Structures are given as structure tokens and as C-alpha cells.
Amino acid sequence: AQSVTQPDIHITVSEGASLELRCNYSYGATPYLFWYVQSPGQGLQLLLKYFSGDTLVQGIKGFEAEFKRSQSSFNLRKPSVHWSDAAEYFCAVGARPTGGGADGLTFGKGTHLIIQP
Amino acid sequence: DAGVIQSPRHEVTEMGQEVTLRCKPISGHDYLFWYRQTMMRGLELLIYFNNNVPIDDSGMPEDRFSAKMPNASFSTLKIQPSEPRDSAVYFCASSPNAGTSGSGVQYFGPGTRLTVT
Question: Which residues of A touch B111 (CB under 8 A)?
Fold first, then answer.
């Protein structure tokens, strides 16, 4: 069974500082990997995804993530955070369906990001 | 284009009542997913459909839960009878079919917050 671990429940970062959110997954092969962001009372918005190819992927809002197969990790980074980045961040893993398409996602428990002025 | 539409956004009901949640996927998307989010269990996949056919319902908690997709533009998740432990935010997501732009990515609706008293 696949699983996702986000070891940090809360992270506090000063505005303008760099950010790294950790994500480790357990899966038998190379999965699809995602980072989603959720603001209070909102749905989930896709930040970025990894399917194949270059292991460093760029997303929206200045975020990037690096897939490291040897460490089963997909950590999210941002060089300089803004107050508007305060939100809940979810890492997710999904199987690669035969022939393409989509499969159900397994989510981590999330990391709550707090931005200090 | 309109995103995934869910209704109602909020639902308060009494234990024992029937609850029906509704979802309209993004036009042209062939996959539809139902997830549940609680503080204790996080985001969990309940069921998903491809071309209106249920593919995986292993996440449906018990027989009180049922989901249907009568056509490509509408799905329902029904709970009968409802119980206080069903209180959660229920998300619907849709995804395009294989080989199309955005394939493999799930686009989430705003969710329905269900409170069962």
C-alpha cells in the first residue's frame, strides 16, 4: 500500500526567508507525485507535479520540488516566502495507470505554514 | 472555464437523515473522484469513476455511503442514514482522460462542509 509522510505538522517562517517542506512516500514503483495547497475554507490548488523526466520541477507561485528516488522524497521549496503563502500544504502520491489517465491519490497529513512578519 | 462545482457548500443535518452531496466535473473530464477530509484522518479517497463507471470504491466507509454518476456531468454522494462521525468536508475532483492536456492531474472543487448533529 502506498503512503505519504509529512513529518512537520507546523512550520513557522519569517517573511522573505527560504522554505522547505518535507515529504517522504512509500510506493513500489515510481509514482505520480503532487503538491497541493489549501487556504482556509477553500479547495485544493495544484502547486506542481512530477510524472517523469527532470527531477527538479517548477510550479506556480515560485515553488519548486525535487524528486529523489534514492530517498523516496519529494520536498517542496521556495527561496523567499510571502505572507500570502500561509496555508496548508499537502503532498500526494498516485499510481501510474496502465495506458495513462488518473488514479486515486494518497495524501500526507499536511503541513501548516505560518508566516511571521 | 468553470471549475469543479459542488453543492451545497454547507450542509447541517440531524443524525438519521439522508444527505446528498452533488458534483459537476469540469467539462470534458472523464475521471471523477470523491474525497473526505477530517482532522483525524486527513484526506481520504472514497471512490472514483472513469467514464461514469465506478473503478475503485474500496474507500467507501460502509454501506451507508453510496455514489452514482448517471452521466458525464453529474455525480452524487449519498449518506443514509447520516451519523455525527460523518461530519467532514467532502471534496470532488475531476481529471482529463489519458493523452489529453492535464492528464493525471486532479482538479478539486471547493468542497461541501457536512455537519451531522
Answer: 42-43
The grid cell for A47 is 502547486
**Quick check: A46 and B43 CB within 8 A?**
no
| Whether the Cβ atoms of residue A4 and residue A107 lie closer than 8 Å to each other | yes
Nearest-angstrom CA–CA distance, B91 and B112:
7
A63-110 tens-digit pLDDT: 999 999 999 999 999 999 999 999 999 999 998 777 777 889 999 999
Spell out which residues of chain A touch residue B110, defining contact as CB-CB under 8 Å. 42-43
Q: What is the DSSP string of A44-67?
A: EEEEEEE-SS-SEEE-GGG-EEEE
Q: Does A97 contact B98 at a Cβ distance shorter than 8 Å?
A: yes
Q: How far is C-alpha A15 from the geometric centre of its chain's CA atoms?
A: 20
pLDDT recorded at residue B1: 65
Average pLDDT of every residue of chain A: 93
